[in-house]
């Protein structure tokens, strides 16, 4: 059973449906981090991820902390700011884009670990939103989380569709189980097994950077 974990900023709310709870981790800069890099480099976010191709690369050694406006889960720290660590003469635009994609994937891993520490079992995740249009990013997320990533059919409308379902239940007094049926999965992105060890090592380095950056800037 899940349990509240306010110290790691895991959100736990009463759900709109009876006898159900909603639990989530929150990161404050996901696609916004890539949009920031796009503004700095004069490229669009799609161009940046397009330069990476579709085949997932091993982590480059450049680490990115996506704390552009602080971070919530698991640090609950409004003052922390982002960082790029490990830059060298050969760190070009593609290396920075790769670091941003990986940093956001590792931030999702932070939220996943916080949810698991609160007693929630997570064996697969669903991707919706702007970042889900990048296959490279999806592969990075699946490999960083070490779980499959499902892409729902018509996933761009997922949040609005969920709200419409709840509205239908309220307006028509409909049976929630009849209305809230699982959505069809269009595709599943599996972790890249050969790169899981390298991503795990990069995540370890990522985790070590928060206290170091916090100590250096406080």
Characterise this structure.
The protein is an alpha+beta fold. The chain has a single domain (6-217), classed as Nucleotidyltransferase, domain 5, CATH 3.30.420.40. The protein is 44% helix and 11% strand. The protein is built from 7 helices and 7 strands, in the order ββααββαβαβααβα. The protein has helices at residues 31-41, 45-51, 93-117, 135-145, 158-172, 176-179, 196-217, and strands spanning 11-14, 21-24, 63-65, 83-85, 125-126, 149-152, 185-189. The chain has a 3-stranded mixed β-sheet with strand order 5-6-7, with helices on one face. A two-stranded antiparallel sheet has the order 1-2. α4 (135-145) links the parallel β5 and β6 (149-152). It is globular, with a radius of gyration of 18 Å. The model has no long low-confidence stretch (mean pLDDT 92).
List key phrases describing it.
218 residues, alpha+beta, Nucleotidyltransferase, domain 5, 3-stranded mixed beta sheet, two-stranded antiparallel sheet, 7 strands
Task: Give the rounded overall mean pLDDT.
Answer: 92
Order of helices and strands: EEHHEEHEHEHHEH
Tally of strands: 7
Q: Going by CATH, what is the homologous superfamily?
A: ATPase, nucleotide binding domain
- Major sheet: order of its strands? 5-6-7
* Cα distance spanning the termini: 37 Å
The main pleated sheet reads as: 3 strands, mixed
CATH hierarchy: architecture? 2-Layer Sandwich
Residue ranges: pLDDT <50 for 5 or more in a row? Answer: none
* Percent in strands: 5-15%
How many separate domains make up the residues? 1
Q: Helices and strands: which structural class?
A: alpha+beta
CATH topology: Nucleotidyltransferase, domain 5
